[in-house]
Design goal:
The protein is mainly beta. Helices cover about 10% and strands about 40% of the residues. The strands form 17 sheets. Strands 47, 48, 49, 50, 52, 55, 56, 58 and 59 form a 9-stranded antiparallel beta sheet that branches. Strands 1, 2, 5, 6, 7, 8, 9 and 10 form an 8-stranded antiparallel beta sheet that branches. Helix 10 crosses helix 13 (about 1180-1185). It is globular. Residues about 1-20, about 970-990, about 1040-1070 and about 1130-1240 have low confidence and may be disordered.
């Protein structure tokens, strides 16, 4: 490409209306100023100024350029912004340096805004250099052939550059191939540039599966585009205009070997001159260089190595002038319908658009009120004949003929006789039969209809938004210059002489593989299957760690985690083990079983490479973000050494994540060639540091745990000493296990308003997501801020009840605010997430409604910052934040606040009060306990277990098993009760007591559980038959029925193991005065089934039976089997009485809006709440005394029911209903029962 070393400055000062500068007539509807530079100039900058001596200036304008002065193209800046900022007064000069230069002869300045108190006034300066080039014109049947001096040309490095402008969407620009399967092809396909490149792979030469690298779009716009191909071996850079794509080519070699020649403009068929394999290029090329050789210059000088068939060396300019329809509601073009000599009418035009709907043509017919409409409907072309307001007929193109692809399409509509024919491109025509001859009305409306209903023209949905050209009515071409001058037809919201279509998917702003689609004014991202969500597929749908899943209340299982959140790494599946206080992340690999090794030597060692379920980058992110990681190495040996006993050199080793060889085998820091037995001083032979080095005939073991996490995981193991007689080794590399998330509780406390933490400049030009937790008592303060010359981004607590997110990317400040109905400075943790992308901005605070704002379709995109990122304050040391900030994450990167706080005055590392800042960390009466960096849950007073007290404790029972739990209370008070003592005790007792449990059984009747006193008072909960009915009932009985127990509420919940309820018998809840006989009957049957999550106040009898069997408070009869029935019951929940008032009476419970029965089917669980009084349920201890005279056969039958029976029945009752019922009872005397109590299950 040739550039003259010169500097050109042009100044325009046109005198108009008595002052210096250009000013159009006030009556000019669409004024513009056009410059003719006399020759093609490389323009690098422009400057504007108002009209001298007046109040006229332009505050905003468009810049267009053209080679011919007819077909114009709009210049767009780096962000795709077409609008240039102009002047604010008449005297100031505003310069704009162009991000990419313009090589053109004509420039046009189109004013958009001007001084509202004056008029348009303009003086301009243009900066640039003269531009010269070698041009070749290809007519679609011509080509250039560059023949090599030798038979073939083999290159390791290639640089090919050219500029082109095309009149068609298809055509070959460059082609070369070799006999060994090498080839290179550069061609236009659907107005996109495609590069096919292969090195030494014969298979791909003859296959139909050639893969192209495509770039750019809309390249058939008749304007110049630049192409640069750079290749070194297999690495290739393809650049089209300002967009570059890097890729690695296919093939087995590093050289491109091309035989005989390279062709430009087409692929000629060997032996048949003028015949081509693919469609030739139709347009112009300039400055065509192949590895430094100017191909067009050689052709112009008629050098023998160049064959130029039908190529001319000046660029012909076709008169294809386009018009842009700018508005989807008000644009239209009206042209007169000329008379046809043969009758009827014929209309032809071309169009291109991104929109799926829009009116193309509407005309009234001679027979009113009939009219014809040609429109784009659901991406297809549709012709509608409106015969009346209610009657119409339609024809459409095929489903595969979508016309909103941004390409030029040709549409024609013609009538002959009693038929109307619609044709799209070169596809078969669609015909509509008419009842009468058809003639068009006076006018044809293209693209839309006037706002007033003229001649029956109505926009069916939207007006057309796109480009049109080559209008022909009854075989007469329409001159749109006459329309522009007001001498033909009419128009509104049109832009003449240019097609302003813009590809909003270039570059593709959809992240993480999201698919981009677009309309005329905006783009959309399809995030399906990516694992991400949001307007640009920026946000991961997965948590970043197992620790984060634990905070959401999840239990152990397989989860997908995204270690870097919205960063470039994708999600990966791991196993989260949450059964301990530490939450372990487990990553498996391809060889977890023990492997036996024999026959390996140091020269030919055994090598195993481990492929993990996560990529190396994901593993590195996981390990670096964890507090600790470890990996077990099980190594057994027999006459197989790890180290050479003579010189200590390793005979076996493993390779770390960075590819480095490691020779320590657990328990030691890197660099120490020893095993765990040496650290523990228990090696079988203390003369060696490893058991295997004793080299004995018997099996030895050197199992250890690798815990230096910077080296983990193990990527490869090498074993080299198993080739001697009787020598062998057995190894197993365990999965990678990591615990802790260093980011979850990484916090800093700010206690001076002038203090802050500073970090490097935020790199978030196109997208930024910021999330963190805060707690404070201050009314306001800045959480973080980063500024540039004009741009900035800031998140702050603007008032005690409001969080504000503000930024400016060059389009003016944008502010999003969320107001809370409760104070946010309540010293509780609150979550904030702010996101800004090229498409929208959003702000989230806790669970409050999300606030978002769409970005302007035409505006700056990039956030340009240059200062440091300030956290907890600003550079001005004003409005600083006082309080705690933790888990600050920006674009998937967690900031180490603690490390930076250690060296910053006014800020301390960490933040006390994790538990006080959240009420949902520990569940089911679990108690939150503070730790230095986080918390743990104390589940000792909960019926549940696990890290968050959410895992149910369940036990399977057979008829011989039961649990008795004795409550501890003051014996003196119980035995020597008096009114006074009782009054004292009542005064100190709690005001509410409750009990809860879940059960699952197939048995009816069945005893569920009891609570009793030594004074023989009880309440019994049984499952019984409802007379002869097949339904089942829960009965709660009292004996004696103390008048203080007043049932207040019974609530029944229904739960299903699957989404579709199964038709099971109904369940009815009764409260009765006495039921001794039923209790004895149920007690004689015992209970076969599963009980889970049994709780009485702060005591968990069932959990104590499993964990504290040695306790004197717990008596276990029979054999207990821990089960998972509670988890099965806790599947999908349906609340049968959710949100309804609960009413209680004697006999059957009646729902406020239902019949006498609370009908429950499926899997149900029951929770019983008993207020103020002792909940007493009849125990098997009582009925065993009353049933002493029972038939001996029943007793023998019970003894024969063993544990094996319970296991067989468990599978049956897992699909049976489990019941959860809540009983609320009130004590009118506000006292509790003072007898010593026993709780039986």
């Amino acid at each position: 490409m040739m550039h003259l070393k010169c500097y050109l400055r042009m100044f325009l000062s046109l005198v108009s209306r008595g002052a210096g500068g250009w000013s159009p007539q006030v009556t000019d509807r669409h004024p513009w100023l056009q410059l003719d530079l006399r020759d093609r100039i490389e323009v690098t900058a422009v400057a504007t100024q108002g009209r001298y001596g007046g109040s006229d200036w332009v505050s905003g304008y468009l810049l267009l350029f053209s080679d011919t002065g007819r077909a114009w193209k709009q210049y767009r800046q780096e962000d795709g912004v077409g609008r240039f900022v102009g002047n604010v007064n008449a005297d100031g000069v505003v310069h704009h340096k162009l991000s990419h230069s313009i090589r053109s002869r004509f420039l046009r300045f189109v004013p958009l805004d001007w001084n509202p108190s004056g008029w348009v006034g303009l003086r301009v300066e243009v900066y640039g250099c003269a531009y010269k080039s070698d041009v070749a014109d290809f007519d679609g049947r011509s080509s250039l052939l560059y023949r090599f001096n030798q038979k073939s040309m083999s290159t390791v490095k290639d640089v090919i550059s050219l500029r082109f402008k095309s009149r068609q969407a298809e055509g070959v620009l460059l082609h070369g191939e070799g006999q060994r399967g090498n080839y290179i092809t550069l061609e236009l396909h659907r107005a996109r540039l495609a590069l096919y490149l292969n090195l030494d792979d014969t298979r791909l030469r003859f296959s139909s599966g050639r893969v192209a690298v495509t770039l750019s779009s809309l390249l058939d716009d008749q304007h110049w585009h630049s192409v640069l191909i750079e290749r070194f071996q297999k690495q290739v850079n393809l650049t089209v205009d300002t967009h570059t794509q890097h890729f690695r080519t296919k093939g087995e070699g590093d050289s491109l070997e091309v035989d005989y020649e390279l062709s430009f403009g087409g692929i000629p068929l060997p032996g048949k001159p003028g015949t081509f394999l693919r469609k030739n290029f139709h347009g112009c090329m300039e400055n065509l260089y192949y590895n430094g050789i100017n191909i067009i210059d050689l052709a112009k000088r008629r050098k023998p190595q160049i064959y130029s068939g039908n190529v001319t060396f000046s660029c012909s300019e076709p008169q294809l002038v386009s018009t842009t329809f700018l508005s989807s509601s008000s644009s239209f073009l009206s042209l007169p319908a000329t008379l046809s000599a043969s009758g009827g009418f014929a209309v032809r035009f071309q169009f291109r658009t991104w929109n799926p709907d829009g009116l193309l043509l509407s005309t009234r017919l001679a027979l009113e009120p009939q009219r014809l409409e040609l429109q784009i409907s659901n991406c297809r072309l549709r012709l509608t004949h409106h015969m009346s307001a209610q009657q119409k007929e339609e024809v459409s193109t095929g489903e595969g003929q979508q016309v909103n692809d941004g390409l030029w399409h040709s549409a024609s509509l013609s009538s002959r006789g009693l038929q109307v024919t619609m044709t799209l491109d070169n596809e078969p025509s669609s015909t509509m039969e008419l009842g009468d001859h058809m003639e068009a009305g006076d006018s044809l409306y293209f693209g839309g209809c006037p706002s007033l209903n003229v001649s029956g023209c109505e926009n069916p949905t939207l007006a057309f938004q796109g480009c049109m050209r080559l209008f022909s009515i009854n075989s007469q071409p329409m001159d749109l210059n006459l329309v522009h001058q007001g001498r033909l037809g009419d128009y509104k919201e049109l832009q003449f002489d240019t097609c302003s279509i813009h590809d909003r998917c270039l570059p593709n702003f959809c992240e993480h593989g999201g698919q981009c689609s677009q309309s005329w004014s905006c783009f959309y991202c399809d995030c399906s299957g990516t694992g991400y969500t949001g307007a640009t597929c920026h946000n991961s749908i997965y948590e970043a760690s197992c620790e984060a899943y634990r905070l959401t209340g999840s239990s152990s299982g397989y989860f997908s985690i995204d270690p870097d959140g919205s960063g470039p790494l994708g999600p990966t599946q791991v196993y989260c083990n949450m059964t301990e206080n530490k939450v372990w992340t487990v990553v498996t690999h391809n060889s977890t079983d023990p492997v036996r090794v024999q026959g390996s030597t140091l020269q030919k060692p055994y090598i195993m490479k481990f492929n993990y379920s996560a990529s190396p980058e994901q593993l590195m992110a996981l390990v670096s973000g964890s507090e600790q990681c470890q990996q077990e190495v099980m190594y057994s040996c027999r006459k197989s050494r790890l180290f050479n006993t003579r010189d200590g050199s390793p005979l076996s080793w493993w390779v770390d994540q960075g590819g480095e060889r490691r020779t320590y085998w657990g328990g030691f820091l890197p660099g120490v060639q020893q095993c765990s037995c040496s650290l523990e001083e228990n090696c079988m032979d203390m003369n060696y540091f490893c058991n295997c080095d004793a080299d004995t005939d018997s099996w030895a073991n050197d199992t250890g745990v690798l815990s230096y996490k910077e080296h983990l995981p193990v990527s490869e193991i090498v074993i080299g000493d198993t080739n001697r007689t009787g020598s062998e080794a057995l190894y197993r590399i365990g999965p990678l296990r990591c615990y802790g998330d260093k980011s979850v509780w990484n916090a800093a406390s700010f206690y001076q308003e002038s203090s802050y933490l500073h970090f490097p400049t935020l790199r978030a030009e196109l997208s930024a997501d910021i999330s963190f937790y805060f707690k404070t008592s201050a009314p306001s303060g800045v959480f973080l801020e980063n500024v540039g010359l004009k741009d900035f981004i800031r998140v702050e607590l603007s008032s005690p009840v409001a969080v504000t997110f503000s930024f400016d990317v060059g389009n003016g400040p944008v502010v999003l605010a969320i107001k809370s109905h409760v104070p946010l400075n309540d010293r509780q943790w609150h979550y904030v997430r702010a996101e800004r992308s090229v498409k929208e901005a959003s702000l989230q605070v806790d669970q409050l409604p999300l606030r978002f704002l769409e970005a302007p379709s035409e505006g700056h995109l990039r956030l340009r910052l240059n200062s440091q990122l300030f956290v907890g304050g600003t550079a001005a040391r004003q409005r600083g934040f006082l309080g705690c900030i933790r888990t600050l994450t920006i674009n998937g990167v967690t900031f180490n606040l603690e490390e930076r706080a250690k060296m910053t005055p006014g800020v301390s590392a960490g933040c006390p009060g994790h538990c006080s800042g959240s009420s949902s960390l520990c569940h089911n009466s679990g108690r939150c306990i503070e730790k230095n960096s986080g918390y743990v849950c104390d589940c000792s007073q909960s019926a549940y277990g696990g890290p968050s007290c959410k895992e149910e404790v369940s036990v399977s029972f057979n008829r011989e098993s039961s649990v008795t739990y004795t409550f501890q209370e003051p014996f003196s008070v119980i035995q020597n009760r008096s009114f006074q003592a009782s009054s004292v005790y009542r005064g100190n007792s709690r005001a509410r007591e409750n009990m809860a449990f879940i059960f699952m059984t197939t048995q009816s009747p069945a005893m569920l559980l009891t609570v009793s006193t030594f004074s023989q008072q009880y309440i019994a909960v049984i499952l019984a038959r409802n007379g002869r009915d097949t339904s089942r009932i829960i009965k709660v009985g009292f004996n004696p029925l103390n008048s203080r127990f007043n049932p207040a509420c019974v609530v029944v919940y229904r739960e299903y193991p699957d989404l579709v309820p199964s038709p099971l018998p109904s369940l009815v809840v009764y409260i009765v005065d006495t039921m001794d006989e039923e209790v004895m009957q149920a007690g004689s049957k015992g209970f076969i089934g599963c009980l889970s999550s049994v709780q009485f106040n702060h005591m968990a009898p069932l959990k104590a039976a499993l964990l504290k069997r040695a306790s004197s408070l717990v008596r276990v009869r029979g054999h207990l089997v821990e089960s998972n029935c509670g988890a099965l019951a806790d599947s999908t929940i349906f609340h049968s009485q959710s949100g309804e008032e609960c009413r209680i009476g004697r006999g059957p419970l009646r729902n406020a809006s239902q019949s006498n029965y609370a009908v429950i089917g499926g899997v149900v669980s029951a929770v019983v709440f008993i207020t103020l009084c002792v909940v007493v349920v009849m125990t098997r201890f009582l009925y065993q005394h009353r049933q002493a005279q029972r038939d001996a056969s029943i007793k023998e039958k019970e003894h024969r029911t063993n544990l094996e029976t319970a296991y067989r029945r468990e599978a049956a009752y897992q699909a049976e209903p489990a019941y959860r019922t809540e009983f609320h009872l009130h004590d009118s005397h506000s006292s509790t029962l003072n007898d010593n109590r026993e709780y039986y299950i």
